[in-house]
């Protein structure tokens, strides 16, 4: 028998950040890896595609934040240059410009979170309201990403968190809830306080530069996933789009021996699931083998949020002050963002018309409107933020409805999320909704959990090699000190109690 036939066989399900990350690490170590993707392209929701007229579109725009250390390391390893420079951003309400954010790393470094508050330019939010955030620092210190604090804060809503720690109503409505609407994709009364603290700390409060962001200079599918897929295939990996997993074959104990796609069965010595919550629920719903286990049945208690992604082409140049913008207050429970693609994407840089991407999160009320009605609403909202849009005429557009597209971190959801290891001894989980202790969020978390799953596969199959996972930057000294004191206080209370 040839050495090639003796390679351990690994099946990875889902070709987003987590699935491609796991696959890449495993093929580099010589495993026989088959990556199964339900959609027509590798990349999942961020793959991107072209319209019938040859214009690029994708399912929303995704930023790459300063603390994405592992994704930036991957980009260097692939030797590609997909990103813009660091960009400034703004926030709008129906009253106009509300907030301008600088490039924080270019400014003198102040102890966290002082730099965030000092350098962010609030146009209307009074200082007294901003100062009401100070008591919240205790919750930030208390939230050390441990299992215990996740359970402590997860049953609380984000709205309760901010109210309990004294944040003013104005501060909540004009600052914190807008962050939730575009960061956790839901209003505060529907968001877990634990997820809120994790997201805010990672992106905004841990270190001054963390809110700095770069953007892909085209679709992520074209600029990042395409060269990444080529590298994986060159290393011997097999990537199969249009392969929807419907079941797994269990050997009668706790080991999976095959992954089922309709009439096809892919033999497996180990399996990595790397799909979103909605995709995983669909797999469980069609799989008697997974339904027989409570941990997988309980995934149906998790939810997801609707996203509406639109792209508009206007007949003239419109001056958009900053390339990336978040908006709130137009609809009570919906946040939205808009991006100047002439400034961000190579494809549109020298075009005479203006190309703008507008994405809505928690977009329930828009999903069943027809395209023309949606475009009217989007055009009106844009003109409220940037008056130059009023004179512009829409000459082309794309409307993409993405039902249940992004994870909803609802209060109480933590108990139903899966860790990387499951009760099936050779099945491992990855994705931005998986429990892990790394502390990252969004695309970076998905990628990191893919690397962690690859490491678990290698350990299970008896190989010592591990993917190098860069930890998040250490807490600043004053935060470390405060957390140490808080831990001592916890221990004293536990002992006395």
TrEMBL record:
PANTHER family found in the cross-reference section: OS04G0560500 PROTEIN, PROTOPORPHYRINOGEN OXIDASE
Organism lineage: Bacteria, Bacillati, Cyanobacteriota, Cyanophyceae, Nostocales
Protein name: Amine oxidase domain-containing protein
Residue intervals of the Amine oxidase domain: 18-457
Coiled-coil zones: none
GO molecular function annotation: oxidoreductase activity
Annotated transmembrane regions: none
InterPro entries associated with the record: Amino_oxidase, FAD/NAD-bd_sf, Zeta_carotene_desat/Oxidored
């Amino acid at each position: 028998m040839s050495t090639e036939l003796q390679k351990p066989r690994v099946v990875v399900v889902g070709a987003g950040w987590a699935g491609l990350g796991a696959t890449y690490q495993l093929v580099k170590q010589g495993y026989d890896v088959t990556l199964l993707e339900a959609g027509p392209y590798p990349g999942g929701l961020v793959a991107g595609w072209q319209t019938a007229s040859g214009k690029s579109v994708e399912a929303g725009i995704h930023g790459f934040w300063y603390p994405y250390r592992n994704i930036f390391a991957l980009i260097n390893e692939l030797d590609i240059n997909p990103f813009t420079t660091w960009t400034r951003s703004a926030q709008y309400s129906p009253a106009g410009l509300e907030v301008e954010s600088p490039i924080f790393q270019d400014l003198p470094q102040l102890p966290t979170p002082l730099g965030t508050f000092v350098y962010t330019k609030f146009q209307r939010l009074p200082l007294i309201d901003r100062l009401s955030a100070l008591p919240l620092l205790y919750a930030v210190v208390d939230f050390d990403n441990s299992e215990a604090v996740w359970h402590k804060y997860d049953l609380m809503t984000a709205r309760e968190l901010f109210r309990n720690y004294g944040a003013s109503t104005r501060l909540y409505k004009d600052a914190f809830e807008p962050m939730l609407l575009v960061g956790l994709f839901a209003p505060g009364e529907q968001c877990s306080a634990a997820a809120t603290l994790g997201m805010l700390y990672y992106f905004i409060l841990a270190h001054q530069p963390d809110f700095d962001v770069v953007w892909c200079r085209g679709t992520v599918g074209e600029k990042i996933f395409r060269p990444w897929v080529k590298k994986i295939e060159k290393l011997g990996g097999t990537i199969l789009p249009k392969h929807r997993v419907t079941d797994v074959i269990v050997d009668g104990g706790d080991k999976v021996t095959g992954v089922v796609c309709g009439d096809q069965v892919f033999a497996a010595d180990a399996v990595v699931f790397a799909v979103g919550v909605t995709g995983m629920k669909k797999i469980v719903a069609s799989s008697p083998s997974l339904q027989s286990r409570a941990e997988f049945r309980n995934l149906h208690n998790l939810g997801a949020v609707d996203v509406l992604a639109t792209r508009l082409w206007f007949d003239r140049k419109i001056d958009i002050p900053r390339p990336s913008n978040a908006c709130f207050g137009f609809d009570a429970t919906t946040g939205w963002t808009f991006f100047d693609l002439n400034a961000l994407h190579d494809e549109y840089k020298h075009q005479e018309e203006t190309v703008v991407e507008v994405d809505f999160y928690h977009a329930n009320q828009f999903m069943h409107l027809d395209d023309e009605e949606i475009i009217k609403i989007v055009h009106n909202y844009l003109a409220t933020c940037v008056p130059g849009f009023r004179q512009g005429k829409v000459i082309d557009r794309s409307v993409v409805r993405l039902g249940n597209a992004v994870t909803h971190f609802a209060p109480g959801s933590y108990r139903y999320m899966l860790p990387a290891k499951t009760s099936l001894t050779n099945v491992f989980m990855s994705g931005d909704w998986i429990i892990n202790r790394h502390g990252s969020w969004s695309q970076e978390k998905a990628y990191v959990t893919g690397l962690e799953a690859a490491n678990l596969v290698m350990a299970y199959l008896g190989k010592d090699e591990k993917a190098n996972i860069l930890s998040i930057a250490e807490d600043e000294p004053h935060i470390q000190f405060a957390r140490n004191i808080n831990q001592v206080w916890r221990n004293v209370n536990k002992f006395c109690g």
